[in-house]
Design goal:
Strands 1, 2, 3, 4, 5, 10, 14, 15 and 17 form a nine-stranded antiparallel β-sheet that branches. Helix content is 26%, strand content 24%. It is built from 18 helices and 35 strands. With 761 residues, the chain is an alpha+beta fold. It folds into two domains: 31-299, Beta-galactosidase, Chain A, domain 5 (Distorted Sandwich), CATH 2.70.98; 313-744, GH92 mannosidase fold (2-Layer Sandwich). The radius of gyration is 27 Å and the shape is globular.
């Protein structure tokens, strides 16, 4: 008994002895509205299957399948996470129906009854005809559990033509192109669908599927459907079409009240789809076992990577929900590449590096070093077989490139932070040089930007190489110019590391070409000097505040006020051109001043990635306290746990990783080993770096939640007093380390050390 008492006391004093289910802090409906477009369905980390509801509300694009309003058109196996542009996937779907179904392939929908429910690994929805739909998933298979009304015939429709539609009218809507479905004697079904288009304007692609039911249907049949003839039953048990106008599908009818279905998918064949479902959800697998295994995987491989002593439920929900949503894509499709055979890992559903390169991939390296190395190897392998690195990729097809060739930045960031392992960096460098020296063919032509390729590479490279700037002959000229400069700095970093000194000097010089777009005479709100459009005859008139640009405009999705800060590798030069440190402080302050531009809001726009770095740039003019103040204001004002909890598209977790870095108290500078220091939210936070290494961040004197007393009074790095407002990868990430902050109510001027590096200046 005494021994038992001691154990009881230990358990009470150390509640962490009991395993914590961190998935309980993940709110899957956070950011599903207000343009956040989060995917609330079921998935494993980087899983190929993302099983969730598809809602149809004509006129509204359902980017992740989910909408708060509308009717269910299906529950499909494939989705993206948090994207804009146009919906992708929504393929391999089932839809439950009740009673007689005379015309199954007539684009049926079922109304929703009440709010959907979700937790990590589990999704539940109800239809107005009395069906409860529950979903679970593994990496490459999914599980449906239907509870039909007692005494009524329950049906499951498999409509191969089902995809997520787009109502934007920009020619980006996906199209069904044909497919087949066959029902076998044992009742299972196999088939494939062919589709095209979507945001990346992909050509035809096929996905294969294989489905099983645990109950014997009272009837099943395949159908072909046309607008003219409706749904025609196929007595052979097989339906096939090579025409977009001829739909194919199957209908399975049951008298059982509860029916479970297991479905696998493959990019290769129906045989592989069947193998995936048999391997991952074999016959007899309990639905709850799949749910529990998914929770366990998220806890083990993702959520437990970051732990804190904080007990504030709102902050914990923000922390773990953000970690969750940054791990849904890219998709680990290793062994499932239909385009070539390779022993290298294969990841796709990159949506997009234009969104992710500023801070997301840096956090992925910190949290998932093994998966991140695989992603780097995959990028290089895509170049080996397709000729260019992707800036974005889905359905195994590159596109679209919004600005520069920003996979260059990803490779450089990995290189300078020591990613080696099985990465072939000589090949990686060749891929970078391809982007830097060879303009991609303009095929296919993008009608929204017909001047040059949006599929991959740097379409405006002819001007960049010949002139050192980009003329209005090319769309998005200013955006491309400042991003090409960053891309060239990335090539410089890898060239320098590989001892290619002549190349390194060339690309370092080219990384300064953003300066050729700098017009010192351009003014706005009393400030002089902005990056502007330029022709061979000189600078062109522009409004630096105009921020409504899109594919055909000089600035893409941001203004000159934003893009003028883009060249962080050359910050010392930028500060001088803007008029010195105090002018830079005033200019940054203006961006965060409500109504400064004459509108009700700020010039700073928290909804889009070109602004991500800006709150932290005060560090470069020795006002770290203002970096803390402005970034915290943005984090606390625009992020919350509600359905509208993101300021803009999640963009594959880009928004969430910006918030996570704010919680940690650091901000990465892509392509360099530099991390800018601001201040952490929590009294204690520990990051598992892998290999037995940890970064432990502590803070005394604050409120423990990042709301007040946020200013740094002093800092120790690895136990030593620290006066710089920045540190490097090698200081605390390479081998682990500690950051000990003392926080207080007011700025202290603790940061008296040298300024952050400006390697191109």
């Amino acid at each position: 008994m005494p021994c038992l008492s001691v154990l009881l006391v230990v358990a009470l004093l150390h509640p962490a002895v009991k395993a914590t289910d961190l998935t309980s802090y993940v709110n899957l409906f956070t950011g599903t509205q207000n343009g956040g477009n989060n995917f609330p369905g079921v998935a494993r980390p980087f899983g190929m299957v993302k099983l969730g509801p598809d809602l149809l509300n004509p006129g509204t694009d359902a980017y992740s399948g989910y909408l708060p309003t509308g009717a269910f058109s299906g529950f499909s196996m494939m989705h993206e996470q948090g994207t804009g542009g146009a919906p992708k996937y929504g393929t391999v779907a089932q839809l439950p129906l009740v009673g007689d179904v005379p015309d199954p392939l007539s684009n049926r929908t079922v109304a929703r009854a009440g709010a959907d429910e979700a937790e990590v690994g589990y999704y539940r929805a109800r239809t107005t005809d009395g069906v409860a739909v529950e979903l679970a998933a593994t990496a490459r298979a999914g599980m449906y559990r239907y509870t039909f009304p007692a005494g009524k015939t329950g049906n499951v429709l498999v409509d191969v033509s089902h995809v997520l539609p787009s109502f934007r009218g920009q020619g980006l809507g996906q199209r069904y192109k044909g497919g087949n479905l066959r029902i076998f004697a044992d009742g299972h079904y196999e088939g494939h669908g062919v589709y095209d288009n979507g945001w990346n304007r992909a050509p035809d692609w096929a996905i294969y599927f294989c489905g099983y039911f645990d109950a014997e249907p009272v009837s099943n049949a395949t159908y072909i459907g046309t607008d003219a003839q409706g749904s025609v039953r196929q007595e052979s048990g097989s339906a096939s079409s090579t025409s977009a106008s001829t739909r194919v599908g199957g209908l399975f009818a049951f008298q059982d009240e509860v029916v479970t279905s297991r479905v696998g998918i493959s990019w290769i064949s129906t045989q592989k789809a069947c193998k995936h479902v048999q391997d991952e959800i074999p016959p007899g697998t309990a639905f709850t076992a799949v749910v529990d295994a998914t929770k366990a995987e998220w806890n083990t491989t993702v959520l437990s990577k970051v732990t804190t002593t904080n007990t504030n439920n709102t902050s914990l929900e923000l922390l773990y929900t953000s970690l969750y949503f940054m791990h849904l894509i890219p998709t680990n499709q290793t062994g499932e590449n239909p385009s070539w055979t390779s022993s290298e890992p294969y990841y796709q559903d990159i949506f997009t590096y234009w969104d992710l390169f500023r801070c997301s991939t840096a956090l992925m390296q910190v949290l998932q070093p093994t998966a991140y190395e695989e992603q780097i190897r995959s990028l290089i392998d895509i170049w080996r077989f397709e000729g260019y690195l992707p800036d974005a990729r889905s359905s195994n097809y590159n596109g679209r490139t919004q600005g520069g060739s920003n996979a260059d930045n990803i490779l450089a960031d990995a290189y300078v932070k020591g990613v080696r392992g099985a990465v072939n960096w000589e090949d990686g460098y060749k891929a970078l040089v391809q982007d830097a020296e060879v303009a991609p063919p303009n095929d296919p032509i993008d009608p929204m930007a017909p001047d040059s390729s949006t599929k991959e590479g740097r379409g405006a490279l002819p001007d960049w190489l010949a002139l050192g700037f980009i003329t209005p002959k090319y769309t998005r000229a200013v955006t491309r110019a400042v991003e090409y400069a960053c891309n060239d700095f990335a090539v410089y970093q890898v060239a320098s590391g590989l001892q290619k000194q002549a190349d390194a000097e060339k690309y370092l010089n080219r990384s300064r070409n953003w300066r050729n777009h700098w017009n010192p005479e351009q003014t706005s709100l009393g400030f002089s000097g902005f990056v502007v459009p330029r022709s061979t005859s000189g600078f062109l008139e522009t409004d630096p505040l105009a921020d409504s640009g899109y594919w055909g405009d000089p600035y893409y999705e941001a203004s000159s006020w934003a893009y003028s800060w883009a060249s962080v590798h050359d910050m010392k030069e930028m500060v001088e051109r803007m008029g010195g440190e105090q002018t830079v402080v005033d200019r940054l302050n203006t961006m965060f001043t409500e109504g400064a531009s004459g509108s009700n809001g700020m010039i700073f726009d928290p909804t889009n990635e070109p602004m991500f770095n800006i709150p932290y740039l005060y560090n470069y003019v020795n006002r770290q306290d203002l970096s803390v103040a402005q970034s915290r204001k943005v984090a606390k004002k625009y992020f919350n746990t509600g359905v509208a909890g993101l300021p803009g598209n999640s963009d594959a977790g880009a928004m969430q990783t910006w918030l996570l870095w704010n919680m940690i108290g650091l901000y990465p500078i892509t392509g360099q080993t530099t991390f800018l220091i601001h201040s952490p939210w929590f009294e204690s936070l520990t990051i598992d770096l892998g290999g037995g290494k940890q970064l432990r961040v502590t803070a005394t004197g604050g409120d423990g939640n990042g709301d007040s007393k946020i200013y740094v009074q002093s800092l120790k790095v690895n136990g030593n007093p620290w006066r710089k407002n920045w540190l490097t990868w090698h200081d605390v990430f390479e081998n682990g380390g500690t950051l000990e902050f003392e926080l207080g109510e007011s700025p202290s001027g603790w940061f008296t050390g040298e300024l952050p590096p400006s390697p191109a200046s």
